[in-house]
Design brief:
The complex is a heterodimer of chains A (132) and B (359). Chain A is of the alpha/beta class. Helices cover 15% and strands 32% of the residues of chain A. Chain A is built from 2 helices and 8 strands. Chain B has one domain: Cytochrome-c3 Hydrogenase, chain B. Chain B is 46% helix and 14% strand. In chain B, helix 3 packs antiparallel against helix 9, helix 4 packs antiparallel against helix 5 and helix 5 runs antiparallel to helix 9. In chain B, the strands form 3 sheets. In chain B, strands 1-2-3 form a 3-stranded antiparallel sheet. In chain B, strands 6-7-8 form a 3-stranded antiparallel sheet. A two-stranded antiparallel ribbon of chain B has the order 4-5. Chain B is built from 12 helices and 8 strands. Chain B has 359 residues and is α+β, with helices and mostly antiparallel strands. Classes of the chains: A alpha/beta (132), B alpha+beta (359). At the A-B interface, strand 2 and helix 2 of A face strand 6, strand 7, strand 8 and helix 10 of B.
Amino acid sequence: MIEEQEMVSIEKRDLLEMVASLRPSGYRLVQICTTTLADRYEMNYSFDKDLKFRNLRFTVLPGETIPSISLIYGNAFLYENEIHDLFGITIENMTTDFHGTLYKTRIPAPFAVRVSEPKESSGGADVEEHHG
Amino acid sequence: MAKRNIIPFGPQHPVLPEAIHFDLVTDDETVLDAIPVIGYVHRGLEKLVEKKDFIEYTYVAERICGICGYMHSFGYCQTVEQVLDIEVPERAVYLRTIWSELSRINSHLLWLGFAADAMGFESLFMHTFRLRESVLDIIEATAGGRMIFGCVKIGGVRRDIEGSVLRGIIAKLQELSPHIREITNVFLEDYSTKHRMEGIGVISKEDAYHMGMVGPMIRATGIPSDTRQIGYAAYKHVQFEPATAETGDCYGRCVVRVKEIFQSIDLVRQLVEKTPDGPVEVKVKGTPTGEFFGRIEQPRGEVIYYVKGNGTKFLERFRVRVPTFANLPGMIQMLKGSQIADVPVIILTIDPCISCTER
């Protein structure tokens, strides 16, 4: 293992409180990432302090909103706008809101598309669209 | 009172090799705010994991960007190997690390050339690119082309480098070193270059840290943040300290990159001397199940690869957070309060890589 990584499962309602406690502790925001699961989205908020990696994780259902952490970490707005544009997740109270214009995509929220069946090697599996 | 204006900067601009746009809110010649607009060439490469299996995707990863291409394939393979729990042969690990440092020298010389060009110092630009050609010759001798493409695979590397070629790299870099010093002295000591960089685009240590800046951007503020210190690949076997500067301005960022060129030359020497004999690849068995946030230090800074496998040959999720994306919010902070004439140089000193950002 290159490095130990701490994965912390939290509730969405605890997000702001936990992130607010990380900043005075000296953690920097490394990235925010979303993964499309079968029927929901998994949110990963990654932080680092002295090369120690800590990840906060929770899931949300399509249509649910997420509070922005951009008032705590100023750089979060870019990740949050990206998540909004690619996954169609609404993030409330971003310090800079591009209102869906950060990425110019032909399909709205393209990463909200998920494969309905296990993929075959031919790559020809049917897809269904979910625009969050 | 001067009138406030919004000046569009980009997406096509002589100082920008790639498309990015800023709306600069100005009061007379002073920038009050900068609003970035990206997404002109967003390719959605992360979504291709649904169509390319995890072995094939290495080729996609290394095409995220030209200059950073090798680093992306290396970082992707290393992260997948963590998920697969593959032990890569030591010789392959060393070769990967040597190519990483050659990429850093190549990238920093490219940046120095662009910086000279942005400052209107054409002869310095040409000298820098002339020296960079020698580094590209080394890359061509080891990778078969001017870009390090197709060399890394999951489980090791595709190409071995003979011992005589490795020793030749040290000799060539030692020969090149005084010539690089000659031009970097111009960047660091010449009146005209200092005039364009000193005290320009300043960001404090605290702001750089809390805005999530990475690479030479954060190290130029005095914070020795360098992902190589985790000790991935062969970095755990070599001695180095992160190169830093204290000023947090454009000049500081130039100082850090110049220091890192010579640091990389030394790292290549250390790595070549310690490279063991042996195989360069292992057979890959199974499919990825699990997840890992891999991270490596690209020339532009820390990059994150998130790989999540579901037991099939197609990854469930691949995500890459590139250094330019991390540095954009901090750059906006730096632009506030700057003069219009300094904007190109400030933007250039983050060494923006839009191909990476528009992955």
